Amino acid sequence: MSANDIAVLGVGMHPWGKWGRNFVEYGVAAARDAIRDAGIDWADVQFVSGADTMRNGYPGYVAGATFAQALGWTGARVASSYAACASGVTAIEAARTRILAGLCDVALVVGADTTPKGFLAPNAGDRPTDPDWLRFRLIGATNPTYFALAARRRMDLYGATSADFARVKVKNASNGLTNPNARYQKAVTVEEVLASPVVADPLHLLEICATSDGGAAIVLSSMEFAQRHAASAGNQVRIAAVSTVTPTYPNTVIDLPDMATDSTAVVPAPARPFKESIAHAAYEEAGVGPDDLSLAEVYDLSTALELDWYEDIGLCPRGEAERLLNDGDTSLGGRIPVNPSGGLACFGEAVPAQAIAQVCEVTWQLRGQATGRQVEGATAGITANQGLFGHGSAVLLTR
Q1: I need a labelling partner for 193 at 20 to 30 A (CA). Which of 218, 307, 347, 374 fits?
Q2: What are the beta bridge partners of residue 269?
């Protein structure tokens, strides 16, 4: 056990769906589940770390205080974090840092969202200096456009095919069949995926994640508190590392919301591109490598992006993700299952909650509680995603 380890005492979720209710309702339900799972009282929580949502007015911008008020004011310290899709991990890091600094023993991290119909878009209003606004206004580049560009890149560089992409959806849909928190619990075939409408060539509708409502929460504590609190603390799930790295100049792979990459004409490319550096930082901190992992939860905004993540987190060399998928290595029962929860393919995006939900899933897997989708003998897992504008997001958990 490292001096930087903290314990995951409890996890909870509000099921993903399209419920159309206030996001606070989802966050409070998830928080109460996590507190109950931790076996503590709400009054024991000393710090509340909220992941913000930008689509729910001022309460969404101050999510930490919003959830603290809804759960009942106790005088606990509070913080609110926004880092787009990385908001959940930024909120986790705020809580972890406070625990490791000795400023609190127990912290609650909560994220929840209520999303509009269709794909996500920049907030309303004219902001000609905002790159996210400009990509919509200047070239009409929606999120699926970027996902399609990444898919075309895989096809051109590594020979990926539409059937390869479709098999990612088939795998994740199968994993999500028995997940009670998943929005979509339906098996699909390669033929059905390829028969769905093309949204942004080469990607089909069933290969791009939907937008969803949902909430997730975790209770974190110092290892000392966990040892006092639980007789089984020796087998406690622990967070061994958190990565929130930013890109290194020059950034040579296009990412939302940028419309061009940096040049390497005068400065060589860094040893690792941005997404690869996210997991690398977590491995370095934890002293754990990709060969030690039992599972991974990665951000499958599209099927092709999941394949990129296989290489970014070191499961295989560049260009071999399709082989890994087609050999069954990333399926349940394979060498390194990826997205045993069903991933975003089965959940959809609830932006401030999703990175926290990834930690919930890995915790259930390490406890042996992921009924119907359990990775047998799981001892270590990593989560990975990235937030708009260069927010790295990875959590490495062990038991």
Answers
A1: 374
A2: none
Residue of 162, 136, 137, 131 whose CA lies nearest to 148: 162
pLDDT in tens, 173-222: 999 999 999 999 999 999 999 999 999 999 999 999 999 999 999 999 99
> What is the C-alpha separation between 260 and 267, in angstroms, rounded?
16
Of 248, 240, 331, which is closest to residue 289 (Cα–Cα)? 240
Whether the model clears a pTM of 0.85, i.e. scores above it, the answer is yes
Residues 63-110 have pLDDT tens digits of 999 999 999 999 999 999 999 999 999 999 999 999 999 999 999 999
* Phi, psi (deg, nearest 5) at residue 383: -110, 150
End-to-end CA distance of the chain: 10
Dihedral sign, Cα of residue 221, residue 223, residue 228, residue 229: positive
Of 8, 7, 6, 11, residue with least CA distance to 360: 11
Which pair of structure tokens corresponds to residue 218?
A: 């975790």
Taking the mean position of all CA atoms in its chain, how far away is CA 160?
24
